[in-house]
C-alpha cells in the first residue's frame, strides 16, 4: 500500500537565527521535541523550505528541523548573494546543530539539498547518524550542461527549451547560464523578474511527470522565483564553489554512514546515472529507483519512498541507540 504524507502539523518553535555576515536564517522545529533529530535541506539553491517537508516524518518519532538557507525564502535579507557560498551554507548547518544542542542527527534533503547534505557529512561525519537523499545532484559540469545547454534535457523538451532561450532575447552571452546570471544580477529590475520566471518555468516543466501543461501563469510568487533564479544562477556560474568531482573523491569520509537514496527513473533535472555512480562508490548506501517518478519531491512514488525511508531510519536509529 502506498504511503501518503503525514497530516499537517504546526511548528512548535520558529525563530530567525543570526549566522553573521548580516544574515538571519528562518529556522523552525516541529514534531516531538524529544524525538530523533532530523534536518531537511531544501533544494534550489534558493528554493526555500516548505511546510510539507515536515510531513515526510512521523511527528511522534521525530524532532523535525527545517530552515531557509541564507539569502532565500523567509531568511533575511532575501534574495541575497552577499557572503553566500557553499562553505557558508555548510557552516550554517553546523551553527544550527550547535544552537539546538543536538549531538547527532539524521541528515536529509532533496536535489541541491543532497549536495549540501553530502558536503556537510564529508566535513562533519561524526555528527551524522544517517542520510535520506532524494534526487542526487553532485555539482559537476556534466549536470550544469545537462540543464542549460542544447545537448542535454533540451533534447527531451525542445519546445520548452526554445521558450527558455527565446523569452530572453536580451541575453548577450554565448552561455545561457552566464546570460541569465547577468540579467538576474543586473540593474534592470523588470528584466530580472521576467528572467526569474522563465528560469523557474523551465525547471518546473522538467521536474514532474505527474503534471502536464505547466504554463507561465503557474509561476505566481515573484519573490520566490527571484530567490530561486538569482541564487541558483549565482551558484551554478561558480560551479557551486566546489571542485569538480569533489564529492566522489571525498566519499571515503562518509562510507561507513548508512544512507537511503531515492531517485526517479525519469528525473529530467538530475539524471539517475549520477545517483548510480555515487552508490557504486558508497558501500553503505542503498539506491531505491522510483520506476514512475521524476524529480519532484511530492510525486506519488516519491512520497511513498521517502515516508517509508524515514520510518526505516527511525527504527534503525532506535535499534542502534538501544545497543549502546
Task: Please characterize this protein's 3D structure.
This protein is of the alpha/beta class. The protein folds into 2 domains: 13-140 and 242-323, Rossmann fold; 142-240, no CATH class. Helix content is 39%, strand content 17%. It is built from 10 helices and 8 strands. Helix 9 links the parallel strand 7 (259-264) and strand 8 (285-290). The two termini are 34 Å apart.
Task: Give short descriptive properties of this protein.
324 residues, alpha/beta, Rossmann fold, eight-stranded mixed beta sheet, globular
In short:
This protein has 324 residues and is α/β, with parallel strands linked by helices. It is 39% helix and 17% strand. Strands 1-2-4-3-5-6-7-8 form an 8-stranded mixed β-sheet, sandwiched between helices.
| Mean pLDDT score | 94
**DSSP strand (E) fraction?**
15-25%
The radius of gyration over CA amounts to 19 Å
Taking pLDDT < 50 over at least 5 consecutive residues as the criterion, the unreliable ranges are: none
Outline: globular
CATH architecture of the largest domain: 3-Layer(aba) Sandwich
| CATH homologous superfamily descriptor of the largest domain | Alpha/Beta hydrolase fold, catalytic domain
- Written as H for each helix and E for each strand, in order along the chain, the element string is EEEEHEHEHHHHHHEHEH
- Write down how many β-strands occur, each being a DSSP E stretch of 2 or more residues: 8
Task: Quote the CATH topology of the largest domain.
Answer: Rossmann fold
Helix content: 25-40%
* Helical stretch tally: 10
Query: Major beta sheet, specifics?
Result: 8 strands, mixed
Q: Order of strands side by side in the largest beta sheet?
A: 1-2-4-3-5-6-7-8
Structural domains: how many: 2
Class inferred from helices and paired strands? alpha/beta
CATH class of the largest domain equals Alpha Beta
Distance between the termini: 34 Å
Amino acid at each position: 500500500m502506498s504511503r501518503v504524507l503525514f497530516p499537517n502539523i504546526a511548528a512548535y518553535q520558529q525563530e530567525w537565527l543570526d549566522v553573521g555576515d548580516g544574515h538571519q536564517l528562518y529556522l523552525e522545529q516541529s514534531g516531538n521535541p524529544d524525538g530523533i533529530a532530523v534536518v531537511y535541506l531544501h533544494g534550489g539553491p534558493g528554493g526555500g523550505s516548505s511546510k510539507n517537508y515536515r510531513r515526510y516524518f512521523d511527528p511522534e518519532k521525530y524532532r523535525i528541523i527545517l530552515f531557509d538557507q541564507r539569502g532565500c525564502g523567509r531568511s533575511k535579507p532575501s534574495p541575497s548573494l552577499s557572503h553566500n557560498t557553499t562553505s557558508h551554507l555548510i557552516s550554517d548547518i553546523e551553527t544550527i546543530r550547535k544552537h539546538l544542542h543536538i549531538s547527532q542527527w539524521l541528515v536529509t534533503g532533496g536535489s541541491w539539498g543532497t549536495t549540501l547534505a553530502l558536503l556537510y557529512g564529508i566535513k562533519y561525519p561524526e555528527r551524522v547518524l544517517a542520510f535520506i537523499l532524494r534526487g542526487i545532484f553532485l555539482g559537476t559540469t556534466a549536470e550544469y550542461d545537462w540543464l542549460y545547454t542544447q545537448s542535454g534535457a533540451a533534447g527531451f523538451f525542445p519546445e520548452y527549451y526554445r521558450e527558455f532561450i527565446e523569452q530572453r532575447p536580451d541575453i548577450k552571452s554565448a552561455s545561457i547560464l552566464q546570460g541569465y546570471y547577468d540579467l538576474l544580477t543586473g540593474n534592470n529590475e523588470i528584466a530580472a523578474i521576467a528572467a526569474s520566471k522563465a528560469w523557474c518555468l523551465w525547471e518546473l516543466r522538467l521536474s514532474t511527470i505527474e503534471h502536464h501543461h505547466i504554463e507561465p501563469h503557474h509561476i505566481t510568487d515573484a519573490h520566490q522565483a527571484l530567490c530561486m533564479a538569482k541564487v541558483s544562477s549565482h551558484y551554478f556560474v561558480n560551479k557551486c564553489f566546489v571542485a569538480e568531482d569533489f564529492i566522489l573523491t571525498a566519499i571515503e569520509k562518509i562510507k561507513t554512514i548508512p544512507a537511503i537514496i531515492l531517485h526517479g527513473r525519469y528525473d529530467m533535472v538530475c539524471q539517475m546515472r549520477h545517483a548510480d555512480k555515487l552508490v557504486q562508490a558508497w558501500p553503505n548506501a542503498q539506491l531505491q529507483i522510483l520506476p514512475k517518478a521524476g524529480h519532484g519531491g511530492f510525486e506519488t512514488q516519491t512520497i511513498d519512498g521517502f515516508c517509508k525511508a524515514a520510518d526505516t531510519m527511525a527504527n534503525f536509529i532506535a535499534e542502534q541507540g538501544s545497543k549502546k
